[in-house]
Each structure stands twice: as structure tokens, then as C-alpha cells.
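Just curious: can you write a single protein's sequence together with how it folds?
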Amino acid sequence: MKTEKSRLIQIAILAALGLAAVLSLVLPQILRGEREEQLLSLSVMLRDTDSSSWTVARQGMEQAADELGAELRFLTLTAANDSGEQEALLLREIEDGAAALVVVPADPGALSAALDPWLVVCPTVTLESPMEGAAGVVSPDNARLGQELAGALLEDWDGGEVLLLDTAGSCAGVAARLAAAEAALAAAGAPVRREPKLPEEPPRWVMAFEPPVTQRAAERREAEGRDFALYGVGSAAAVTAQLERGNLAATAAWSDYAAGYLAVRRAVNAVRGTGGTLAPLPFFILREEDIYAPENQKLLFPIMSSSSR
């Protein structure tokens, strides 16, 4: 009787050990699968074909995605500011199961109309320009930025026409910067003119309202030995380099890293129903002498600043 009882106990122990061995192999896979299933799929779409000026913003997006349990899919257009292609690609992303979108809209009005039936089930966060129905916009106060950039020019202005590079197209955020700058200059008595690109013979005073346009104008100034004073926007490495070399009189700069991070965080929170408010991004008017001020290091050199910690 005791022998039979001992045999049953041994069988039970062996069975328990076998079950434990099986669970040790299977359970991690089950838990890994659960973690993977919880990852949110976010699609990110710019309005440019060249995403180099968004490199730092992308790093901020990836940091937020890593912290919040999301995976990012980045898409680019074959033609810059092609709103039709942008709409088609984003609708495809929604059909393929994207949980949320992060977009720099080429035409906010057209994109809002195209995505309207889906915005409830697929929250969309925009960068640069607000969009009706979006879960939020991550951008500086564009009108205030244009006004303050014009103020920087007026500090130096001693007469003459001011050329405004009108490259906004249907981009509402860039258009708001230009309109506010134009109003401030006109109120101060400065004559203004709009042109879609820098002419062969630029006037003494030039303003640009997008980082890539600012960069190209500064590079042309340097390459051709021009002496016009350029006022632009952006804090990317290429823009900062032009500021340092004296090819930019001033730039309106904000943290691209923060912009990317906040956009993804807002999108994830919108999916999970934990929203909140988004304040406009702080921006600063910087001149060459401001580049190496300690308070501007994280703004202009975010990668160097983070690696030094």
C-alpha cells in the first residue's frame, strides 16, 4: 500500500515537473505575443519628398514610440506637396490597420475632407498646420512666429523693399507665418513683395518661412556671394550651419525633437482615450551670436546634448 502511494506521489511530481518545463518554454512566447499585440501601429506622412530636414523630429518620434509601445511606419511622397497622393496613401494606411496617423498636411482642408469618415476610428495628429477634425496639432504659434521674425528684420531695416518667399501653397501653417510677417512689415511702413522663389537679383531684405526654403536661400547667398539679409525659420543642422557662417541674419527656431515626440505621444494618447491639451511649441528668434549660448544647446544640438549626459 505504501509502495503504491509512493509511486503515485512520484508520478505526480514528474507530471508537475513536466508541466513546469512546458510552461517555461511556452509562457515567454505567449507573453511576447501579448506584448506584440499591444503595440500600436502609427503611420507617419510628411509633405516633402526629402525627409532630411525632419531627421531630428523623427528621432523624437522614435523615442516616444519606444516609450509608449508603438511602432512607426514612415511614408514619403513621390512629388512634394502632392495632396492627392498624400490622401490616397493615408487612406490605404487606414485600410491596412493603422491605429493613428501623424501627418504634415500638404492641404489641410482637402485632407480633412478625405479622412473625415475615418477620424473617429483612426485619430490623426498634424504637424505644422492645424486640420479640422484632427486630434491635435504640434506647431509653434505660426502667426506669432511670423510677427516676431518680421520684428527681427525691422530691428535691422534701414529702408528698401522686403521680399517674402511665398512657398506656402495650401499649407496653412506656413501661410499664417507669411501673412503675419507681411502685416507687421506693412504696419511699420516697409514695402513688401511676394515671390515664389528667390529672383536672380534679390533685394537687400529677404524672408523665408519654411526650413528647406531657408536653407536653399542661404546656400545660394553663400555660393553666389550675395549680400542680402536673410531671415528664416528652422533649427536643423543645415540651417544652424548657415546661421553660424553669417548667411542668415536670424532664424525662428523650435525643437524638432520635441515636435516629433509630442506628436507621437498625442497620437498614442488619442487611441487610448487619454488625451489632454497641446500648447503651441515655444520658439526663439536666434542670431549668430546666440548659437552657443548654454540655453540654446539642446535646441540647436539635441543629439550632442543628449550624448554628453
Observations:
- The radius of gyration is 26 Å.
- The CA atoms of residues 158 and 190 lie 9 Å apart.
- Confidence is low (pLDDT under 50) at residues 30-37, 304-309.
- The chain has eleven helices and eleven strands.
